[in-house]
Design brief:
About 30% of the residues are buried. This protein has about 160 residues and is of the alpha+beta class. The protein has one domain: Muramoyl-pentapeptide Carboxypeptidase, domain 2. About 45% of the residues lie in helices and about 15% in strands. Strand 5 and strand 6 form a beta hairpin. Bound molecules: zinc ion. Zinc ion binds next to strand 4.
């Protein structure tokens, strides 16, 4: 069995439904799959559980734009030095191309914000909503620090949902 297959089994064993080892370990810019050290595998589980939950709330598919990013790759793609992608704690989730309407985008951001309000403290969740700077993508991570960025945009949205 390859490491990738073993990671896939591990994810299934942990109850992850909608996301595969391959998609969270693919370095898209160089079309390569890199599996992080086994000792790190538990780190991604709470983030994947959030992603699964988000997927259920939305009722439509999400795909992983970025999952694990080894430090050298993260540097090459100009990721932040403290990016939780390096530590296998983060996912960038995006709408499939055909689903990229303003309405679906708003639903994605709202549902992500709701999870942040409900679970952010317990999970030490990080959240990035990239509209309108970087398309329909959302970033989520867990186990590091509760925080969000793009505050000017995110704060009013969070307040409207409280
Ligand atoms: Zn990210």
């Amino acid at each position: 069995m390859t490491d990738l297959e073993r990671l896939d089994c591990y994810l299934k064993h942990k109850g992850i439904v909608y996301f595969s080892a391959k998609e969270i370990c693919t370095l898209r810019k160089i079309s390569k799959v890199v599996v992080p050290p086994e000792a790190w595998w538990p780190r991604i589980i709470p983030t994947l559980q959030l992603a699964d939950e988000l997927r259920v709330h939305l009722g439509f598919p999400l795909f992983v734009g970025n999952g694990y990013r080894p430090a050298d790759y993260n540097k090459a793609v100009k990721g932040s030095k403290t990016s939780q992608h390096i530590f296998f704690r983060a996912l960038d989730l995006d709408l499939p191309k055909k689903m990229r309407s303003v309405e679906n985008q708003e639903t994605l951001y709202e549902e992500t914000c709701k999870l942040f309000l409900e679970r952010g403290v317990n999970l030490k969740m990080g959240m990035g909503l990239y509209r309108p700077w970087r398309g329909t993508r959302v970033h989520i991570d867990t186990g590091h620090k509760r925080r969000y960025w793009k505050a000017k945009y995110v704060k009013p949205l969070l307040n409207s949902l409280r």
